[in-house]
Write a structure and sequence with these properties.
- This protein has 279 residues and is an alpha/beta fold.
- 53% of the residues lie in helices and 13% in strands.
- The chain folds into 2 domains: 164 residues, 3-Layer(aba) Sandwich (Rossmann fold); 108 residues, Orthogonal Bundle (6-phosphogluconate dehydrogenase C-terminal fold).
- Helix 3 links the parallel strand 4 and strand 5.
- The protein is globular, with a radius of gyration of 21 Å.
């Protein structure tokens, strides 16, 4: 299949590597000419260009730019699309993107592969990034079943498990498991850095090990991505943050009042429940 990818970074580049390995013809478009050259050298794409006209004749186009550029990219892409071309994106927020893009192109289906690393850009692209990951699609009422089926088949071919839901449900779910953790994790780092005794702070930095590495990882990642999550998913994220603050306040109270049994009960419940959230 002839597949176009716009935005050759971590996600776009990684999709290119996997789809090309499956013998699809990959046409890549990115903003910078140097990115296109690296993509060709790395074997991410068969052809690359800074011009969207390269994507003429593509059966599927996957927009992998930052969230802020997705709708604008689709607008510029319109003159080069065949009437049957399916367009999807990989943005980590769906409702505002789906609203804008569906109005521009009726064969648009929102998508979000739940995979990533702390790196960004074409040099971060890697094979098998989507192996074992969830890949969500958010069709609308006009979506053709056959188009959705094509995208799901493509996502499964790179090792992902697909899920289909409404854009709003996606945004609320990822607020809990992806966007809230980024804000909690970044607050954790800010709090540690706020230690007023420089000797204690230096010691903490030396002593930090796997626990801190795990809990600070998502908060210490790409700032642009974190900002986009907050900007584009603000209602769902705020809802999750308020609930989190409430729960943190409860824990503070239990510790202040030395209610160790109540605290243990919460910890026990969460020890039992956590496996439900990870596969
Ligand atoms: P990234 O590594 O920074 O890649 C984005 C690429 O898009 C950049 O390398 C840039 O390439 C290109 N680009 C930027 N503006 C463009 C434009 N106007 N037209 C064409 N290309 C443009 O970011 P990413 O992590 O792959 O994220 C891309 C998308 O995936 C975002 O929408 C994000 O929400 C979503 N996502 C990210 C993750 C994650 O964990 N990182 C996970 C799932 C989904 P140049 O070098 O040419 O400027």
């Amino acid at each position: 299949m002839k597949i176009g990818i716009v935005g050759l970074g971590l996600i776009g580049g990684s999709l290119g590597l996997d789809l090309r390995a499956l013998d699809h013809q990959i046409l890549g478009v990115s903003r910078k000419a140097t990115t296109c050259e690296i993509a060709l050298e790395k074997g991410v794409v068969d052809e690359a260009s800074t011009e969207l006209s390269l994507l003429r004749g593509a059966e599927i186009v996957i927009i992998c730019t930052p969230l802020s550029a997705i709708a604008d990219t689709l607008k510029q892409l319109l003159p080069y699309l065949d009437p049957e071309t399916i367009v999807t994106d990989v943005g980590s927020v769906k409702k505002p993107i789906v609203d804008q893009c569906s109005a521009l192109w009726s064969n648009f289906i929102g998508g979000h592969p739940m995979a990533g690393t702390a790196e960004q850009g074409i040099n971060a692209a890697q094979s098998n990034l989507f192996q074992g990951a969830a890949y969500v699609f958010t069709p609308n009422t006009d979506t053709k079943a056959l188009d959705l089926d094509k995208l799901e088949t493509l996502a499964r071919s790179v090792g992902a498990t697909t899920y289909v839901c409404a854009p709003q449900a996606h945004d609320r779910a990822v607020a809990w498991i992806s966007h809230l953790p980024v804000m909690v994790s970044t607050s954790l780092i800010t709090s540690c850095l706020g230690e007023s005794d420089s000797e204690v702070l230096a010691l903490a930095k030396h002593l930090a090990s796997s626990g801190f590495r795990d809990t600070s990882r998502v908060g210490g990642g790409n700032p642009e991505l974190g900002r986009m999550m907050a900007e584009y998913n603000n209602q769902a994220l705020l809802r999750s943050l308020y609930a989190y603050r409430h729960n943190l306040d409860q824990i503070i109270q239990l510790i202040e009042q030395e209610k160790w049994d109540n605290l243990t009960k919460i910890l026990q419940t969460n020890q039992e429940s956590r496996p439900q959230f990870s596969n």
